[in-house]
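Q: Give me the 3D complex with NAP.
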Amino acid sequence: MAEALFPKLAVIGCGLIGSSVIRGARAAGAVGEVAVADASPQARERVAALGLADRVTGDIAEAVAGADLVVLAVPVMAMGEAARAAAPALKPGAILTDVGSVKGVVAEALAEAAPAGVFVVPGHPIAGTEQSGPDAGFAELFHNRWVILTPQKREDDAYLEAVQRLADFWKALGASVERMDAAHHDLVLAVTSHLPHLIAYNIVGTAADLEEVTRAEVMKYSAGGFRDFTRIAASDPTMWRDVFLSNKDAVLEILGRFTEDLQALSRAIRWGEGDKLFELFTRTREIRRGIVAAGQESPEPNFGRDHRETPQQSGKTTGV
Ligand code: NAP
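A: Here is the predicted complex, encoded as structure tokens.
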């Protein structure tokens, strides 16, 4: 059997994403020993019962000691604290990465916490479901999905090699890898993921607050479009609170544009401007058909189940 890319992997936060990384890495033979640290006793119990790791602990420093690759898979606003707890025990030459959905603040926190000699390479797999916890993960989660790495602005060989090794790791898990500037990542994801989630949370909240339409009616007739929003609005509350608070500027920028467009639609409806509505709906239908034709999406609506991205959508990127 080929040598593992990383003899020892440590995953901090073993929920949906952390446990999927472990399952995928083990299935690919990309890692040797696996250590997990998780703050939740219930999660630790499940990780042990599922046999996901060789060592499970509540102590981050203990888990990362001797690790060649450390993956932080905790909610975005817990990343800094996790990195600080890991820092004193990180091995020189180790790669410290994360899977957080926002990159600007996380990249900064990791860079501040990491000691010299540790390679910090922030990352984000554009793959997920609305489920949480170690039982929800699966080895194929990253198959045919993008992973965006937002490396530091360093050009030395040792660092570039570390970035390449991490890219190879994700490729072994079935993903395609791109490099991107952290700020650009946050803007791209504000459009493709964060705004759609905000809209879903809002529309489901609005329906729940309506007095004239009963909750039973909302459930009964949900196939009219509402059902797909409820799936995305079932996404983890902690994760998404953190995403919006830590990608504030990009989300508010995109939300501003969205609100203007919505006002224009509202005006078109009020004044009976059917041609404007027809023109927009024709344009958006073409976009959807283009995505399906490119083999990047199944024809059925599923944007709540996995927020995958196509290469065409991913903006200014450089292949790794
Ligand atoms: P999850 O299933 O809720 O798992 C997170 C785990 O980390 C939980 O067991 C949690 O324990 C634990 N944790 C929280 N704070 C911690 C800390 N300071 N130290 C150690 N463990 C801690 O979450 P997830 O969906 O895997 O998301 C993890 C990360 O992946 C997030 O940063 C998210 O933005 C990113 N991501 C998620 C998706 C997705 O679709 N879910 C997709 C791409 C990226 P408690 O339950 O006790 O808090």
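A quick observation: The pocket of NAP is lined by residues 12-13, 15-18, 37-40, 43, 73-76, 78, 81-82, 99-101, 125, 128-129, 132-133, 236, 239 (CB under 6 Å).
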